[in-house]
Amino acid sequence: MKLWASNFHKALDKQADDFNSSISFDSRMYKQDITGSIAHARMLGKQGIITAGDCEAIINGLEGILADIEAGKLEISPEAEDIHSFVEGELTSRIGDAGKRLHTARSRNDQVALDIRLYLRDEASQIISDIKGLISVLCDKADECKEYVMPGYTHMQRAQPVTFGHHLMAYAQMLLRDIDRLHDCIKRMNVSPLGSGALATTTYDLDREYTASLLGMDGITANSLDSVSDRDFTVELISCLSLVMVHLSRFSEEIILWCSWEFKFIELDDAYSTGSSIMPQKKNPDMAELVRGKAGRVFGDLTAMLTALKGLPLAYNKDMQEDKEAVFDAVDTVKMCLEVFAPMISTMKVLPGNMRKAASGGFINATDCADYLVEKGLPFRDAYKIVSEIVAHCIENGLTLESMSIGDYKSFCDKFGNDVYDAISLESCVMRRNVSGGPAPEQVAKQIANVRKTLTDM
Questions:
Q1: How confident is the model at residue 54, as a pLDDT?
Q2: What's the pLDDT at 274?
Q3: Longest CA–CA separation in the chain, Å
Q4: How many angstroms separate the CA atoms of 297 and 292, rounded?
Q5: How do 349-350 and 266-267 pair as beta strands?
Q6: Dihedral of the alpha carbons of 93, 94, 100, 104, in degrees to the nearest 10
Q7: Would the CA dihedral through 232, 235, 237, 243 be positive or negative?
Q8: Is the pTM of this model over 0.90?
Q9: Which residues of the chain have pLDDT under 70?
Q10: Residue 4's pLDDT is what?
């Protein structure tokens, strides 16, 4: 029997019942639902709203239900309307009338608001841990590759020389910002709505702060109407996760490019690649492509959540049941992507010879050639014009800056000397960019050390 059915004279239509039910997706919150109910029962007992005996019976019964679910001895019934109904029904069948007293001074509205906050707090914390694991992998790989010269790009055109380690640490910085955002999101999520009732609290003498402290929450919500209708934290979490997916998708795009024969900067391990059913030579970066594709799925979850909330009057509306599938999907997708991404990066083979060969083309040391003339006393704009003319000359004659003769250099500007070849050496170009945050191996090593310390301090 439904918890609300005593005033109804006709059973809910079967199709409508299935449409209304949320047990298929909210059952994953069983642990948080039971944990919240235990805290609620303790508070009711402390306040004398229920007897000490009933309080003890309820807590023991709930702990037994939790243990049986986790041991596989108790299956959550798909016939239940929701996880709250299932737990309360099972409790009452086990301990009798005391189980019926659990819901005193509580509504399913504040109960579900609590459950989803607790559940998402736990999931967001796990995602933070997974991101930390990926950042640690990036630090290890960057440490191996901090001297591997590669072309840096703007507009997908070779621009200036960097190192592969430097490139990897750019993604580490993005992911650190993701962790900061998730921590902020948890802070706003971690307040207890329990005690708000359906929308207008209750006449019972509750101690809401006590319940919040039992649940490890930082405080209580301030307005009962807002308490049961607020799902800002779900939007905020999916927004944070959308940015995580933006970063993973950008990284995936580069991995896909780097794997191609046109680049061939890296080779993915066989364990994270697939082949073709018709072309035996193919080795496809399917894991990276899937991550790139799944980004759109999380963005869709964010749009769905915003759309579901945008026109709702206060307080609770059944539309809000739609929050769970969207946010659960976003959480599951991000966790799945992170779990495959870290080992894909840790096992990939880096091909520094191909990176160095690519860096030798495209005149990516042209800026350094101009800087050389500036050091000889020319204004930068004059140096820029001279070097652009030199590049045009090299392209026309099939030369590079390294292969052009000193005589040709002097024909453009008499300030050139033999030391220009050292100045435009790719290794020298990278080493001389020894500015904080730059690509010089010394600076990359400092970035790695700083990121590792940040991870430790988080």
A1: 98
A2: 87
A3: 101
A4: 10
A5: antiparallel
A6: -140
A7: negative
A8: yes
A9: 1-21
A10: 43
CA gap 306, 302 in Å, rounded: 6
* Residue where the block lists tokens 């944990």: 35
Helix axes 322-347, 232-259, angle to 10 degrees: 30
Number of Cα atoms under 13 Å in the Cβ half of residue 426: 23
Out of 93, 260, 276, 403, pick the active-site residue.
276
Tell me how far apart the alpha carbons of residues 370 and 327 are, in angstroms, rounded to a whole number. 52
Q: Which helix (H) or strand (E) holds 423?
A: helix 420-423
3-state secondary structure of 3: coil
The question of whether 155 is a catalytic residue gets the answer yes
- Is residue 115 within 8 A of residue 29, CB to CB? The reply is yes
Task: Quickly list H helices, 310-365.
Answer: 322-347, 352-359
Q: Which of 6, 9, 155, 405 is catalytic?
A: 155
**What is the torsion angle, in degrees rounded to the nearest 10, for the CA atoms of residue 232, residue 233, residue 239 and residue 245?**
-160
* Residue 40 annotated as catalytic: no
Judged on CB neighbours under 10 Å (0-12, 13-18, 19+), 455 is: middle
CA-to-CA distance for 266 and 278, rounded, in angstroms? 24
**Separation of CA 3 from chain center:** 38
Output the pLDDT for position 129: 98
For position 219, what pLDDT does the model report? 98
Question: What are the C-alpha distances in Å from 365 to residues 86, 137, 239, 387?
Answer: 68, 30, 40, 10
As a whole number of angstroms, the distance between CA 194 and CA 202 comes to 11
Q: Are 230 and 113 in contact (CB under 8 A)?
A: yes
Is residue 228 within 8 Å of residue 318, measured between CB atoms?
no
290: alpha, beta or left? (left if phi > 0; alpha if psi -120 to 50): alpha
